[in-house]
Design goal:
- The radius of gyration is 19 Å and the shape is globular.
- It has no helices and 28 strands.
- It starts with 9 loop residues before the first strand and ends in a 6-residue tail after the last strand.
- It is mainly beta.
Length: 356
């Protein structure tokens, strides 16, 4: 995209999801880029335990949606009741029988793997990592490499685990280590060197790990965020750019070649739960932010990679903006699917104007 300008988003639809909603992911695989999944997480009273302080039941659901290009609205084509969902991510290449592959991190500490077969998500495998919440996941193929498939998962204990997945879908823990003393809200691979893994925690720390050293100690520890670090993503085509987001309401841009301090930062007015670089070749300078009470924002990276500016915002009237994802279809580079939590709502919107 050219020099920074401000754009007014266009809301195409907003729809109730019944359960509270916290994750959205568009499918990156050609032929299925008109589909997205929405992850739901619902707390409910346990009818078998009426004690005043009884723990709530955690219920989950995944909605498979398909874009109608005539109406520019999403149609639900499948719903699956699963464990409460914390994070969902697609592989950016086909894997299981040449089908799109979806990973789901759940409140039961499990990683679930599904295969999209036609218009149906089919359960393939699952692996339990802990008895607490699995909080985030990231596949190692962000730049669509041909390396063996691995997935990193962070959890409420403060651990990060790396799992290998076979061509048949079998999961095996390769490494697992204590990354933070408090919940590890987020983890991400360096897509250009997947020996390198990053993590962010409720201890306000952003850390790097080199798996070749056994992860006995971090390669660096940054305290530049003032509150918990809960989002991050490596750029898919630039080998040295990484962004992190925090409850301190700032997005920080890092040069991984000189990680001691951020290159720049921008305040978006809310804690940043998710960050997503635009996958379109023409708009790789755009970053999507789900900023909790601050709503949804599109942030533009300056041409010299030294500035971040908010160029488009969708107000949520204070509702918690948790899930957000760019559509991968090159016909719709500005199309965003998103969701807000307590009001159990999904949204579809365009974040900037595109030539017809």
């Amino acid at each position: 995209m050219a020099e920074s300008s401000t754009f007014t988003p266009t809301l195409l639809e907003k729809v109730n999801t019944e359960y509270t909603a916290d994750a959205v992911e568009w499918c990156p695989i050609p032929g299925n880029q008109d589909k997205c999944v929405i992850g739901l997480y619902q707390l409910k009273d346990d009818p078998d335990n009426t004690e005043p302080d009884a723990p709530k039941l955690r219920l989950g659901r995944v909605l498979l949606m398909q874009l109608n290009p005539d109406t520019m609205k999403l149609n639900e084509i499948q719903r699956i009741d699963v464990e409460a969902v914390l994070d969902i991510k697609w592989l950016t290449r086909t894997q299981l029988n040449e089908c799109p592959t979806l990973g789901i991190a759940t409140a039961s500490g499990n990683l679930l793997v599904f295969s999209l077969q036609g218009d149906t998500l089919v359960s393939v495998t699952e692996l339990n990592l802990c008895s607490e919440l699995a909080l985030s996941l990231d596949w190692n193929d962000g730049k669509q490499s041909s390396s063996p498939i691995e997935v990193a998962v962070s959890d409420q204990r403060g651990h990060v685990s790396v799992l290998a997945m076979s061509s048949e879908g079998a999961l095996e823990v390769v490494e697992s280590w204590k990354a933070h003393e408090h919940p590890a809200w987020i983890t991400a691979f360096n897509y250009f060197d997947t020996n390198i893994v990053y993590s962010g925690g409720d201890d306000c720390r952003f850390r790097g790990w080199d798996r070749r050293t056994g992860c006995s100690a971090p390669t660096f520890v940054s305290r530049r965020h003032d509150m918990g670090v809960c989002s991050m993503q490596h750029h898919r085509t630039n080998d040295h750019l990484l962004v992190t987001g925090s409850y301190d309401e700032t997005v920080k841009l890092w040069d991984t070649r000189a990680i001691r301090q951020p290159v720049t930062e921008v305040n978006v007015g809310g804690g940043i739960w998710r960050l997503k670089w635009n996958p379109s070749n023409d708009h790789q300078d755009l970053l999507l932010c789900a900023a909790m009470h601050g709503g949804f924002h599109v942030v533009q990276l300056g041409e010299d990679e030294s500035s971040l500016d908010v160029v488009s915002s969708l107000d949520t009237d204070g509702e918690l903006a948790y899930g957000a994802s760019w559509c991968w279809d090159p016909k719709y580079p500005s199309l965003v699917g998103s969701c807000t939590f307590y009001n159990a709502e999904r949204q579809l919107w365009t974040s900037f104007d595109t030539p017809q």
